[in-house]
Design a protein that fits this description.
By secondary structure, this protein is of the alpha/beta class. It is built from 13 helices and ten strands. The strands form two sheets. Strands 1-3-5-6-7-8-9-10 form an eight-stranded parallel sheet. A two-stranded antiparallel ribbon has the order 2-4.
Length: 319
């Protein structure tokens, strides 16, 4: 089985008709420009061909890596509990766009994003299932989704019936605006887990900033209770995210870890070297790899993640 990247972002400004939008301001605009530079893309977020250039670059990086495919993520808009859309958030990627991209490019696997408070949430879920969605992604803290809300029970039940995995952001977040930080606690995922949804806790509930609460211990404890809970190691090559690498490459956790890069988040082995997860020669070798997808893949292998980490997603997606 070929390795799969379970966590790759699609972004776009919508000027080419994709339906995407960007509302990036302040330090996040500088951060976005840095991310684009790391992909060897122009830093102009407003270019007329930005969406097409981003997809073309992603395809080239994937083709030049050891990975066979990548799960590409839609990005839902933000709603309140009554299902009213809010003017909040920094970017949006429609489900239709990622489904269309996956139809055109066999190396892409579509992950949709649906706020369960939407009046048409179940209808949209059914449509996406019929069109080949392999996963559903939410950032509860950013999308304003409390997974414990009883109103969402039917939504989780339908996901469980369809065996559609939920990729849920857990832990701190700096890249996009946060509405409810407490929703990033993995314990909020107890209800969909009890209902039977397969949940992948993105980032294993690790921190991204110095002042974030560290909820990794809650995630580790929950693994013993829920056999349908997994974690991904996306962004573990950022300064804070990878601090629990030693625990995640050992049992009883390592057999529940799935590989993800979090592209376009920049990739550097500096932090793994400083923490002693890799030696100096490995760090220097990986830093010379120009392809950020391949660099992340090689670093995660060197950090101790076994081969089945990179193929485990096959057993969750193909049903």
């Amino acid at each position: 089985m070929e390795p799969i990247d379970a966590h790759v972002h699609i972004v776009g400004n919508g000027r080419g008709g994709s339906g995407c939008w960007l509302r990036i301001e302040g330090f996040r605009r500088t951060l976005a420009a840095f991310m684009l530079h790391s992909l060897d893309l122009p830093r102009d977020l407003d270019g007329a061909d930005f969406d097409e250039a981003y997809v073309a670059r992603l395809r080239a990086l994937l083709a030049g890596s050891s990975l066979g495919s990548a799960v590409i993520l839609a990005q839902e808009e933000v709603y309140d509990e009554a299902g009213v859309r809010l003017e909040f958030g920094s970017f949006h990627v429609p489900n239709r766009y990622v489904l269309d991209l996956a139809r055109r490019h066999k190396e892409f696997l579509p992950c949709v994003s649906i706020h369960p408070a939407r009046a048409d949430a179940i209808d949209e879920l059914e449509r996406c299932l019929a069109e080949g969605a392999v996963m559903l992604k939410l950032l509860p803290n950013c999308h304003n989704v409390d997974p414990a809300n009883p109103r969402y029970t039917r939504f989780w039940e339908r996901m469980a019936e369809a065996r559609l995995p939920l990729l849920a952001h857990t832990g701190g977040e700096q890249t996009v605006p946060v509405m409810n930080p407490e929703y990033a606690d993995p314990r909020r995922l107890t209800r969909p887990l009890e209902i039977g949804v397969t949940v992948i806790a993105a980032h294993c509930a690790t921190r991204t900033g110095l002042w974030d609460p560290d909820t990794f211990a809650h995630f580790a404890t929950m693994l013993g209770r829920f056999p349908n809970l997994y974690g991904d190691n996306s962004a573990f090559n950022l300064p804070m995210r990878g601090e629990h690498t030693r625990e995640t490459v050992r049992e009883p956790i390592v057999s529940r870890i799935i590989y993800g890069s979090d592209l376009p988040v920049p990739v550097s082995g500096l932090w793994a070297w400083l923490r002693g997860f890799i030696d100096w020669h490995t760090y220097r070798r990986c830093e010379k790899i120009p392809n950020p997808l391949e660099r992340d893949y090689q670093l995660k292998r060197a950090m101790g993640f076994p081969e089945d980490t990179f193929t485990r997603l096959h057993s969750l997606l193909w049903r």
